[in-house]
Design brief:
Number of domains: 1
CATH topology: Pnp Oxidase, Chain A
Shape: globular
Number of helices: 3
CATH class: Mainly Beta
Distance between the termini: 23 Å
Length: 146
């Protein structure tokens, strides 16, 4: 299960950088960096990616997902199965799909004698106001439980 303090941090920040790993039907692995992720509860993560991304394609094929999270004093890897819950978020200028992951296992990824001192530093570049608007639309869709 996800620790309560991590859930609270993720909800407070709105966008939370993580690394997500998937596997396709032939066993080929893929990893990428995402920021649109929201914990519904201790065992459920909801996240959004471009509908045509390799991550989305792999989840549709196998559902297998691993998500690496970094936060103060924590490096956790969540393993589980994800499924698409929304094909396209309305009001977003390109196709973004929403997936929900049921967490089977959470592992501490820190090696002994180490710690993480904060979250991954993250900032938008380019058209910042447009990106902030996009973040708000996507995170709002992630928070919606319907």
């Amino acid at each position: 299960m996800l620790p309560r303090e991590l859930i609270d941090l993720m909800r407070d920040l709105g966008v939370f950088p993580v690394v997500i790993g998937t596997v396709d039907g032939e066993g080929n692995q893929h990893m990428t960096f995402i920021t649109w992720i929201y914990p519904l509860d201790e065992r459920t993560l909801r996240f959004a990616v471009s509908s045509k991304a390799k991550t989305a394609e792999n989840i549709r094929q196998t559902g297998k997902v691993a998500i690496q999270m970094f936060a103060p004093d924590k490096s956790l890897t969540c393993y589980g199965i994800a499924r698409e819950v929304l094909e396209k978020i309305e009001g977003v200028p390109f196709d973004v799909s929403v997936f929900e992951m049921e967490i089977d296992t959470v592992e501490n990824s820190l090696f002994p004698g180490s710690t993480i001192t904060g979250v991954i530093p993250f900032a938008h570049t380019g058209k910042v106001l447009k990106m902030v608007e996009l973040d708000e639309k996507v995170v709002s869709a992630l928070r919606n439980r319907s």
